[in-house]
Structures are given as C-alpha cells and as structure tokens.
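Can you make up a protein sequence with its backbone structure tokens?

===
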Amino acid sequence: MKDSKLETIIRVRLLIKGIVQGVGFRPFLYRSAQKYKLLGFVKNTLQGVILEVEGNERDIKDFIPYILNHPPPLSLIESVETQELPVQFSKTFEIVSSEETGRGDLLVSPDIAICDNCIEELFFSEDRRFRYPFINCTDCGPRFSIIQGLPYDRPKTTMKDFGMCSHCEKEYKDPLDRRYHAQPVSCFECGPTLSLYNDEYDDAKQGKMVNLVEMVSQKLNQGYIVAIKGLGGYHLACKASLETSVLRLRELKGRETKPFALMGTLEMILENAEVSEKEKTLLLSPAAPILLLKRKESTAIANAVAPHLSDIAFMLPYTPLHLLLMEKVKEPLVMTSANISDEPIIYRDDIAALKELSDYILTHDREIHMFADDSVAKVFEDRLYMVRRSKGYVPLPMKLALHSPETILALGPMLKTTFTFLYNKKAIMSQYIGDTDSPASIEAERTAIDHFMKLFSLKPGIVVMDKHPGYPNREIAEDFKEAKVVEIQHHKAHVGSLLAETGEMGKILGISMDGTGYGDDGNIWGGEFFLGDYQELTRFGHLKYLFLPSGDKSAKEPWRFALSVLNSLYGSSEKIKTFGDRFGKKGEFTLETIKKKAGGILTSSCGRLFDAVASILGIGDFNTYEGELPIRLQACAENSRHTDDFYRYSIETDKKCRILNCLPIIHDILEDKRETADKAYIFHRTLAKGFVDMAKLAANEYHIRKVGLTGGVYQNTLLLQMTKNLLEKEGFSVLIHSEVPPNDGGISLGQAFLTAGLLSKSRKEKL
C-alpha cells in the first residue's frame, strides 16, 4: 500500500459561476471536502463561489469531478475556473464570510416550491414549526422575490428585519444542517406574522397564525373571496365549486370569461383532470407551474371557471400557507392573480386596492421585493411547452450559441410583455409583466429592469424595441440616453426567439403566426413566412392581405373581420347580408366602411383569420380576452370525428412574395353541411397543409429543409401537431418552442438575439 506521506500535497482554487448561492452549494462543498479529507475554505463572492482546497493530489483529482457531477439539485453550474496555488498548510475547512468587491457575475435562483422535508415538518405535531406558514430550508422557499442585492446573504434580502431566535440561528450557522444559510429561515418565535383584513375593520386582525388560517378557511368554505399574499404577489381565492363565488370574482376583477387558474392537491387534480406522467412530473417540480390539463367530464369545478373550454388550469399548493389552507378547505380553490385587468400582479401591501377585489385579505409582513406571477405551461409530445414564463423559471439564464460584445436590453412588445438582457453568450429573460398599455404596467417594467441591472451589474449599450410606433413601452428607451436604439420587426422577433432557444445557427423557413404586428410595409402582419438565419430574415410569403375594419376594434369584435372576409369572397351577395343583419345598424355601417376601405388597414393576420372562422361558424362574435374565439375554435375542433378531408386554398405570387390565399377555405366551410366540430377540424388540417405547401415551395427554390413554428397561434397545440406531422412526413426537420413561449412572451428574447446577429454580421462585413 502506498505511504500517504509520500503523496504530493497541492492547493487548488476554483471559481464556480452560475446559480450557486441560496441553493445549498456551500454546505454541499463543506460536506464534500470532509468526505475527501480536504482543507481550505469556501465563500460567496459577487463573481460566484470561490473554493480553495488543499490535500493529497489524488484526493483533489477525485474531489473536483465529484462536486461537478453531483451538485445540489437546484443549482446550475455555468463555468468553473481552476488555478493551482502555493500550499498554505490550512488546518481546517471553513465556510467564510461573503466577499462583496468586484463586478457582479452571479445568477439568482427562482422562487422554489416547498420541498418534501418541509412538508413533513409542517404537518408533524412534534416539530417546532408544526403548521408554521413560512417554513422553508435551503432546498425551497422564496429567492428571486426577496433578493435585494448580491451576494445572496440575509442582510441583502427582505428578511433582514427579522432577527433570528437562538434555535434558528443555530440551524443557520451549522454547515451540516438543512437550513444552513437558508436566508428566509425563521419560526413562530422570530419570523413573519400573518394578518387578516376585511371591510368590518380598517386595522389588521392579528392573533395566533393557526387561528387566522382556520378563520380564512371557513370564509372560503362559506363562499367569500380572499386575497392571499403568496411568493411573488397576491392571489384572489374562492372555492372553485361555487358558481356564485366564481361569478362574483369575475365581476370584482372585471374578467368576463377568461379562464381562472385553480389550486389543488394532487389528489384533487387527478379527480378533476386527465394527468399524464409528464404532466404529473411538471406539477410536482420545484417550479410548480400552472398546467393546462384536459378537464374530466365528472369534474365538480364550476362552469364559470373556464367557460366553453375543455381544458382547466391547475397548480399545486407551493407555499406552506397554501398547504395549510388546502388542508382545511378540502376542495380546489380558484387562485388567480390579484390585478386590475391585464396590469401586473399586485405585490405591494396595497390594502385599499385589494379591498376592492376581495372580502378578506390574508397578508403578512415579509416584504415582496420583486413581483413574479405564476408560470403557465402545457405538455406537448411529452415535453414542456411554455405559455407564460415567470415564477419558478425566472431569472434562470439561457445559454446562447451566439456571443454578443455589447450588453443588449430588449423591451419586448405591448402584450404579454417580458424584457431580456443579453450579454456574452447568456440571455436573462424577465418575469411576465403583462400588457404594457397602462402607466402602471410601464412603471412595473421600469422597476424590474432597474432591479435586474443592479442585481446582475448590467448596463445596456443597445436598447431594442418593437417596430410598432405606438407601443407605449418604447418610451423606456428614452431612459438610456447613451445606448444605441434598434428596432426589430415583431414577427421576425418571434422567429429569433425560436432560433435563440433551439441554438439553430443555420438557415430555416420560419413560420410566424400570431394576432397582429406592425409590418415593414406599414400593413399589419400576422401570417408570415421568413427565410434566413440569426443575421438576416427575408419575407418569403404571407397570408393574403384582407381589409381589417376598425383596426384594433376587430380584435375584440371578430364579426367585423368576418364580414370583411365574406365581402372579399362574395362582394354584394345575400350571404354577406344575412351575416351582417345579425349586427343590425352596426353591421350595415361596418359593411359600408369595408366596401369603401375606410377606417381600417390591410392585414395578413392568422389570428384574425381564426377569429373570422369562429364567428362564421357561430362559435362566437366577441373576444372578451385575447385569443378567446381561437381557443374555443380549437376546443370545438377537438370534439370532431377527425375526418381526413381538406378544404381548398391557393398559393399565388406577388412581387416575388408567395401568397397563401385562404378565401377558398371560407367558401368551402360555408358550403359544407357537416357538424360545426368537423368543419373546425378540417379548417385546422387545411391551414396546416397550406403551411406545408409553402414550406415545400421554399425547399424547392432555396433548398431549405428545416422549418420553425412560432407565434401566438402556435399555442394551439392541435394546429402545432398537425403542422409538425405533415412537415415531418415530407422530410422536413421541425423546430418548436419548449422553455420559451411561442407567444409574445418570447418576443424580447428574439429581439435581443437578432440584434446580436446584426452585430455579428456587421463585424464580419468590416473584416
């Protein structure tokens, strides 16, 4: 056996970057160093975790791959820099105080759902945190929403005002404890306190927290609406089985028919929805997103929760407070964001505003520093398909295939707004902000941008915005006087987001289908085909331009565009008059403006085409929320007998641009005598086939065999599946989204990525 005295003693320094703070990384390194009998220290810095280990060369060579291959589950190692140092003859291995000098290069963990260990303690009567509404440990709890600065230590979080009791402090300082440096660690003795408000008294009712939870549970069971402070903001909750409560919540929130999210235990979810193994895994994941699931016919959920839809949106209780409430209520709860229309979620303790939306307010005194709405996702082909990327995922970075020498800030669109910072080969997307068409929303985006800049030590040299001259958040660009301003066309940005997410650097045909966006020719685009790559995208084709009367009004009243489509198809026929007569004088006036081409604009929008078909089929004439009729059209199609038929369409050429003319589809729909569901299904099939025929033309002319599917229309997974299947049958490779929403929530990433592509193209041209 080899004599250990003859072993070479070395000292190695590692700088580990990524999500390595607030996720149990230092205690993991401490335990690992003990396992390999190494000496030295570990500490947090603004650049990452610095680790110095000293010991036998053989042990250190085994230790390094071990820590890189077995990190804590919530951590993310982005890079490791290794350097050999002179031996210092350390006597111990220590966790030393954080260092706060230098430029920051840290990443931040998202807020994490309560872990199994904490759930066990929460309901174990002998535990000192039995039924404690703020129980957490290194593996769970608030992160992003409470961080005020880096490195991630308690004085730089909103927990700084809560002094730890001796028991919590002992856990906090013990490297072998599960709560070692868990910054929100607390208990009944030293932690945040619950308070309850209602209209009967202006001052908060305080008392034993378990009693307040019991009281709120009773109020929910009695049909009251309660505002509840969560991780990243307030929810509005009511019992999901009580139709009257759900309808009253709609009235208070001003939300006519847009579906509400639900919260329930796994057993409750399985009782009310179809859940695959992948869907179950996502529900139980640390991110705890809202998941769109197929509703069971036997569900007891009130119809008013998701009118006219076959899907319902469920999430698990992801905080201890939610779990305590669910235990007492024993039924699913509506758990929707507390906000005014499409403004950002209320996260400050604005009791007056919350009283307008609820009967009771269950709040606490742990400040939310940064808002984060719930993420929304679905499963497509057994993989995550993101609809809204926010809590649980933000601010996780995206690694890019493209390096940017400049820090880029992309401001996103007007609807479903996010922003993105892109620097080096990394993109950090913001949480969901909402529709930035109000001063409150603009201010929320500004606040979040400022927070990201301070947190990640960023200063943009380029600010990117949508080409639409009327988007209100363009004014944020004025805050950056020294930055260069770039405009990126909306639908090209959709393709850019897909290229960024998939890492595709070659040429593709990007099929970008959504509602509306300002086009390069001044018309409203929305059904676009682009050829190119991250450096340049050229319009290959589009859906046929049709007249959109009354502009944005047609998005809320789709019958107007349906009337225009019928006019383009038939002119002054009886079919138009019959349809228009449904809307009386409004219909007559609108038809006149259509014939005169007055008060409107030309559009190639695929989203508006879905609106028109839904109206013509009698599914509905009004969108009370964005995309309502297209969603209902999809739900209708999914009830079809699944015929193999297609309707007709044509492909034309205009100024070297290919035009997909869908008017023959409308004619065939009107002539078809089959059930509405069958016609809706064939419409989807035909549209998918039209897209594939456009791809085949591009392949023949430009030898491109790779196609990307993006844009808000591709939230429609029926259309997505049909298009993808037909493309693959023709031998195409197909790129689709997963972790980035196909809708406008991904626009900011595309804006930033295409801008980085322009920079790289410019550098190449100068060489």
Notes: Residues 4-95 form a domain with the Alpha-Beta Plaits fold (CATH 3.30.70.100).
